[in-house]
Design a protein that fits this description.
heterodimer; A: alpha/beta; 16% strand; globular; B: alpha/beta; 5-stranded mixed sheet; 4-stranded mixed sheet; 34% helix
């Protein structure tokens, strides 16, 4: 697959997708949106990777959407945003563990991309902001996601003022899961990958969905959803083999393979 | 227009009509009419997924309680109400189509909530002014998935006979398969099912397009033998009493991926290519099981839930009620794919592929 705005590297079950427009701060163009969606679908179809890592080329993760994609003399069209949101949802539902590896600026749509991932690893010089409201438009469905991470009050102030959040603060607020020195990002990604251990795609897909839905469903409904999901998880070979090992080892919680 | 290698002409579902008997009951009203105080039974009614159902219940006695109906009365009710609501659904469906009853060449009728011989089609043909040489098929004892089994025979007729209109009608008088003995067993069943009928017109005609309705492309069935006795009628004291095992929603969840993904694979489709999911409103648990096993969203099953909420589980007619909502909604576009999933005794999972 020919890629102009992205780079793909695959090794050892890890696919690394690099936003590759360094001269533009890795800004998200319509071409990048289309390439992201196509690439994620390809990874989904091939199902050979366990982990997908998103990075930015150079010392920036992503500076947000590329406003040069709006022709100066035409009526602005919202469909591009729709397409971008669809790409984010595709990423959020990939049947692999997704990790954002962030250095430098992580702004607007870039921040949303990071929030769609299962984990965020970042350098201590990384910083975050949603500049859109100050510029007179909206930070996409980042509005939907951010408040779940940092709480409504903080999200509102952060989104309305466009203020910068430094890496240390982002870690305290739970936006960043793993903070590292600027030179250690590769190592930190490896540590985070290892933290996920054996990856059971069914369990990953289901738990991600349940956590997401925990914000919107009443307890009684959620309980039914959980039971349906858990029944799927315990019918997998992974669970059956776990039970077999428990009995073999005589242990309530056996060692993993 | 029989170009070699050309896509075969697929039948389309071009019109749907539905009908229900007049009276509706909230869950609280049903509990009141049967004077049910057992918290174990009340729990099923109070889960909140069903707001109201259409049911045909006998007049209250002087004590305010609904009297018991014997087997003969229940069968008579099944026939009488089926003919009422079935005929109304057929009339409404025809009114949504360019056809008159006497132009129909085929009719399949599904019903599992009562048994009669001759079958419902004999009455429908006579009572609705269809021709005496209309082909007919009665599909009985197949339960909630029977609407899909009927659609399969109807679509097969339509595909083999281009230009000749065929009709499928699903008629369920669940209140005629009613045994209320205050046990949990009958409580589960009586808190869930409602009465209703749905008819759909199916025709293969090359002049039709996506705006006329979806093409019926393919079917895939799956029977789970291990669960054969988990959903069944027992014949007790001259009445059919339905049994629904607690495991059924989970067993369906565990098995539903097989027919759905086999169906998609056969057409080289991915789940993300499916824009519309028409899922039988079997109950909250089984809808959840399908949602989390196929990986479809609350939005995908919005009509499934709304039909469950407003009508309960109307057995074989349910998925046509959902399809009608989808067709009314106007969100379908040419080229969109849809998947139908219906499940019932067998345990059976019947799936179908639609294309607008």
């Amino acid at each position: 697959m020919e890629l102009q705005t992205l780079q793909l590297e695959r090794s050892g079950g890890i696919a690394t997708i690099t936003l590759n427009r360094p001269e533009k701060g890795n800004a998200i163009s319509m071409l990048m949106v289309r390439e992201l969606e196509r690439l994620c679908r390809q990874l989904d179809d091939e199902a050979t990777d366990r982990i997908v890592v998103f990075r930015g080329s150079g010392e920036t993760f992503c500076s947000g959407i590329d406003l040069l994609d709006f022709p100066p003399d035409e009526k602005p069209d919202v469909r591009g945003f729709s397409r971008w949101e669809r790409a984010c949802r595709t990423i959020e539902r990939l049947p692999m563990v997704t990790i954002a590896a962030i250095d430098g600026e992580c702004a607007g749509g870039g921040m949303q991309l990071a929030l769609t991932c299962d984990a965020r690893v970042a350098t201590n010089r990384s910083f975050y902001h949603l500049h859109e409201v100050r510029d007179g438009f909206l930070p996409g469905m980042g509005t939907f996601r951010l408040a779940k991470f940092i709480g409504l009050g903080r999200a509102r102030f952060f989104g309305m003022t466009g203020r910068r959040m430094q890496a240390a603060e982002a870690e305290i607020l739970g936006v960043i899961d793993h903070l590292c020195a600027a030179s250690d990002l590769d190592e930190a990604v490896k540590t985070t990958v290892a933290a996920f251990g054996d990856i059971h795609p069914d369990a990953i897909e289901l738990v991600r969905r349940l956590f997401d839905e925990s914000f919107e469903i009443a307890y009684e409904n959620f309980l039914g959803c959980f039971l349906a999901a858990q029944n799927r998880a315990i019918q997998t070979d992974a669970f059956k083999s776990l039970i077999k090992r428990a009995h073999e080892q005589g242990k309530t919680r056996p060692r993993s393979l | 227009m029989n170009n070699a290698g050309a896509e075969p002409l697929r039948p389309r579902i071009t019109a749907v009509g539905t009908a229900n008997p007049q009276p509706t009951y909230t869950q609280d009203e049903v509990l009141e009419l049967f004077r049910c105080d057992d918290p174990k039974v009340r729990r099923f009614f109070e889960s909140g997924h069903i707001h109201k159902r259409h049911l045909v219940l006998p007049e209250q006695g002087p004590d305010g309680i609904v009297p018991d109906e014997n087997g003969t009365e229940l069968l008579e009710k099944h026939t009488r109400i089926s003919l009422e609501i079935g005929s109304e659904a057929i009339r409404k469906c025809l009114a949504n189509s360019p056809y008159r009853a006497d132009q129909l060449d085929y009719i399949a009728a599904a019903s599992s909530t009562g048994f009669l011989c001759p079958g419902l089609t004999a009455y429908f043909i006579e009572g609705n002014g269809m021709r005496p040489n209309t082909h007919r098929t009665d599909i009985v004892g197949m339960g909630c998935n029977a609407g899909m089994n009927s659609l399969l025979t109807t679509a097969s007729f339509a595909a083999a006979n281009p230009g000749r209109p065929a009709m499928v009608v699903a008629c369920e008088v669940c209140s005629a398969a009613y045994v209320f003995d205050m046990t949990v067993r009958t409580g589960v069943v009586n808190s869930l099912f409602g009465d209703g009928a749905a008819a759909a017109l199916v025709i293969a005609d090359e002049d039709l397009s996506a705006t006329d309705g979806p093409q019926v492309m393919d079917f895939e069935s799956c029977i789970v033998h291990a669960a054969r006795d988990e959903m069944r009628f027992d014949f007790e004291e001259g009445k059919f009493s339905f049994f629904l095992g607690w495991e059924v929603p989970y067993l369906i969840g565990e098995n539903v991926r097989t027919p759905v993904f086999d169906l998609l694979d056969r057409w080289g489709l991915k789940k993300r290519d499916i824009s519309h999911w028409i899922v039988h409103s079997g109950g909250k648990k089984v809808i959840d099981a399908i949602k989390y096993n196929i990986g479809i969203t609350e939005y995908d099953v919005r009509h499934t839930y709304s039909i469950l909420r407003d009508y309960g589980n109307i057995s074989s007619a349910s998925f046509l009620f959902s399809l009608q909502e989808l067709m009314k909604e106007g969100v379908t576009e040419e080229g969109d794919w849809g998947v139908v999933i219906a499940m019932g005794p067998g345990v059976s999972i019947e799936t179908g592929l639609l294309r607008w």
